[in-house]
Amino acid sequence: MKGRRGENDNQRVEQRSRAVAENATRNRRTEQEQVAKLRQYEDFVDKRLKPDLQNAISQRDALLAQRKTFTDLATSIHMLEQQKLTKLRTMINLGSEVYAQAEVPDSSRIFVDIGLGFHAEFTWQEALNFIISKEEMLAKQIESSTGQIASIKAQIKLVCEGIRELLNLPSGDTS
Question: CA-CA distance, 163 to 82, in Å (whole number)?
């Protein structure tokens, strides 16, 4: 009997050793998979989400600059109306920050950039009406762009939270 018990003990020890070795191999594989997944998430944030965020911010900034240009034009038109100027003397940018004096004999009609490199001739009131509609359109585009920026920031935060959980780090929230 003692011989069988010794054999059984040896078999149990062998089985335990194999189980421990398999567990260690599985754990190493799991750690490698976890590191690979972390790299994948980090690459997604760095190579996809952050450039998308920069592009969305640049587009919104361009829209804001365009809206400011139209607001400035509306202010100038209101000033012309209030002062009842028919003749105008101004400085014109010729390009590369080179300016020349220009005299406008009849300022009752102005040319406005309507987009895609086209300019339309408007009376002051027509120009103001166009500016109002253009500003409304730009406001919608800015709102949409701001929403897109918020969405991208939320995605970045979500992925970073996933990374934090994979690393078993404490939450960054203080609330």
Answer: 61
